[in-house]
Please model this.
Amino acid sequence: MYSKRLINAASGREPCDIVLKNCRVLNVFTGEIIDGDIGIAEGRIAGIGEYKGKEEKDLEGRYVVPGFINSHVHVESSMVTPQVYSVEELRHGTSTIITDPHEIVNVGGADALIDILNAADECPVNYYIMLPSCVPCTEFEHSGAVLDARQLRLFMNEPEVLGLGEMMNAEGVINNDRTVSEKIKEFSGMIIDGHAPMYSGKKLNAYACAGINTDHESVTFDEALEKLRCGIAVLVREGSACKDLEAIIKGVVESGIDTSALAFCTDDKHLADIRREGTIRSNIKKAISLGLEPAKAFQMATINAARIYGLKDTGAVACGYKADIVVLDSLEDVEIADVYKDGVQFKNITEPEIKEKKMMRYNTGLMHSVNPAPLADDAFDIPEREIYPVIELVKNQIITKKLIMTHEQITENLKNGSVRKIAVIERHHSTGNCACAYITGYGLSHGAVATTVAHDSHNIIVIGDNDSDMHKAVEQLKKINGGYTIICDGKVAGSLPLEFGGLMSTISADEFIPMLDDIIKKAYELGVDKDIDPFITLSFAALPVIPEIRITDRGLFDVTDFRFIEE
Amino acid sequence: MYSKRLINAASGREPCDIVLKNCRVLNVFTGEIIDGDIGIAEGRIAGIGEYKGKEEKDLEGRYVVPGFINSHVHVESSMVTPQVYSVEELRHGTSTIITDPHEIVNVGGADALIDILNAADECPVNYYIMLPSCVPCTEFEHSGAVLDARQLRLFMNEPEVLGLGEMMNAEGVINNDRTVSEKIKEFSGMIIDGHAPMYSGKKLNAYACAGINTDHESVTFDEALEKLRCGIAVLVREGSACKDLEAIIKGVVESGIDTSALAFCTDDKHLADIRREGTIRSNIKKAISLGLEPAKAFQMATINAARIYGLKDTGAVACGYKADIVVLDSLEDVEIADVYKDGVQFKNITEPEIKEKKMMRYNTGLMHSVNPAPLADDAFDIPEREIYPVIELVKNQIITKKLIMTHEQITENLKNGSVRKIAVIERHHSTGNCACAYITGYGLSHGAVATTVAHDSHNIIVIGDNDSDMHKAVEQLKKINGGYTIICDGKVAGSLPLEFGGLMSTISADEFIPMLDDIIKKAYELGVDKDIDPFITLSFAALPVIPEIRITDRGLFDVTDFRFIEE
Model:
């Protein structure tokens, strides 16, 4: 960090590398707007004042704010590599992301973590990592890997690592579960992210007492306020599915509470949404439109997050800080005129550096991670019974309902197309595990839809109206090393390879976005209900922590009773 | 930090150790006052709500705030041990101190640092240490020790150590001095305290760019504001001599700037002043009286300092935080009703624990640190010259003036008592170094006054009207292993042993305060000028960084020219 050259430039003994002249700089420490020139050397801010530079640019009185910090994000949700994702973030002003590679590590374990750490070094943003705390997510399914406290410890001193990722096993925390407490103890000197939706009262107190530092699951102001009072920093989330910002920020504005323990995040946001409006940029804009003082909104997006995560040289346009800078045409509308990362203009970052680096320095295993055991012809047979438990999908939500249907109802509904078969096939270790059940609410007039994105263990999920297309879909996913596929009458009607771990594509954003649009369109053409996302909804069908009923490779799981449904 | 018992108490499964009922708790995260009971277990806050405890205390609606943090203090200025000092701080609500043992380490080096680290473990406050960055302070005198970057590195992972202490060699920082930059590089991942009085513009920018995180030397609001804008946290100082708070806080209130990068400190405050009004307690009270919102004043005194120094479980009354608590009868007047440290009431801390632990676990060397070489009878002779440079003390200030007097003037002034001899004798390594000169403005009708407290190298300083009493004073200091002494006609007229390094007494505060009062009174009786502190003024006569003229063991030093005055 120490740089003789930077000190010489700051003191005026040497010219700066670049000087941004005629700026109106937001100072996040004092909340003021300061007029001046920004001197930059060695990728850092030398000072604000009158500086001379080898290169000078007149910003003509535009606002300058620090690069934004996305304080909690799962990059896998974008389905592109960290390198490609980072450029999309940076385009809209986010220069620092704090990520939890929970999904890919559930597939590839320590190997995947090493790939992501290597990828982080190639990204044009400050790419920090919270180590996934829940691998596997639950004991009710087979994931690709297990990371215990000892394995996590191996990574805790890596320079990109800030602490332990969201501790989703909140019940395990407050009940002193041994495998959970081992991890928490190990990371007590670092930051520990929480995940405590609707936790309150003594349960929340117990969770905070374990040493949890942040939470991004608050959906109301009251929930956020109670967490803040407990000493848990609140990361206000606005992603593609979860939109919590309006409720929380309205409460903040009305109550006038201190905002220093609040920051912004997206958690999960799709690439096309990011391309359209950015991430933290749109959070700031929305917060200001709801009445939050602009200075406070930008503090949440920058220095607050930096302080919460202990980042010393990020989150401010101030002496010695990284020259991660956003130039704005308008403060309130967060209209981005330009972005600098380490003092380099955005247009000079994307072109030469990323194009050749967009591929992961992947290890072979993760590029061939779809390895189901060969399926028997009758793998998707469901034995005849008097009644059947059925998964009912709920429109525009990820919860499901548990229905009971008689044999006659099933027969009738399969015929009229309101019920389909769904199967989950273990794909990491060729165990041959396979479970099959009935599902309603998906639509799909004919064919099979399948994915290797299947939270959180990412086995194969396939849904269909006939066993033959379902078999073919599994074969196709194996062939493309994972991704999305649609099979109709034995033919591939659509295919989106996600060859890195079955979760992420290694192509560019420009290539990827239309391919994704295309396969979603194809699914709707085949009759998937328009109020359902054909693949994302499917990907949550195997997550055994969200009510009421799920299917894993081990069978149908009743989330309310927290146990498998016996045949 | 992880405690199963705490989690069980927080969740209500087990009773708390103690519950403080009916409190009005200041929440430093939100700025609110929350009514409730505070549950405490294992010395930490389990939660606020309705808790049952093995012991319960009704606080009858009193305010509860977090224990205060003194963010920068030299304990040596109190002249008592860390253990004794800590109790005086805690009495007035300070439960965390961040100290720089710069003085004692300049005497005893790494051995002294180990003593202080050991003492820290016995203190009833959170006793954090910033490693002294300037040992020796300058090259113009012989101190007791040298600590280079390599030696400092040995201590950087000690649990009490937060970073590098105030980097007083600010010119060395901005000019890339090698021994300075080595230390800064070593500590770039930790906190580095600054010391940049009146630094501004490009010099200040360069200083900040080196990675300096804090400064406590601002005396005006404009100076503080400029440092804040640079990203340097401002520790607002109110000690016995330096009183900067009014100027800075008035500016903060008038400008309405954000206060999150501001904290409070004392730097140097005498024990009797602390006993009378406390430290941070009086800072808060004064800040509120100047119009600062109480919540903001308490945030400065607690969570702000904790965030600046990266302390995770201190500075808030919130789940999992240390139960370091101040109970107030009044928020605005900061009238302290009670103090808890780690959940233990103050009255139960002082009596049993401290009385037997007040002695340092000293190493033998530091209890025998006054080792001047035997002095020749003519050691204090000053060779006859035509003119002499003379040190002039300035009333109520620590700066000095350089005067020139002829031989005739000297002879006359020695006779009328306005000029006295001053000598500095190297006392660490028996080098035999001794310098003698003339001084005016001190008073003293007859006898000799001497001290081993002599910033920053702490050699022996003696002043007198006759060589015999001066010799005797040096002998007496050697005999008592350092401290203050007054000799008159060959007899000891006053003696205050400071046997730990010649800087600190190992007796209790109750014993120490009257002894100090007594020897100061004695000095005034012997004619020391009433506008001079007989010992503190003397202790700065050897500090070769404050204008205009000083005397070290190597000779008279012209601070303006930054060189020794040739004979």
Notes: Chain A touches chain B through 62 residues (CB under 8 Å). The CA atoms of residues 263 and 300 of chain A lie 4 Å apart. Chain A has 19 helices and 27 strands.
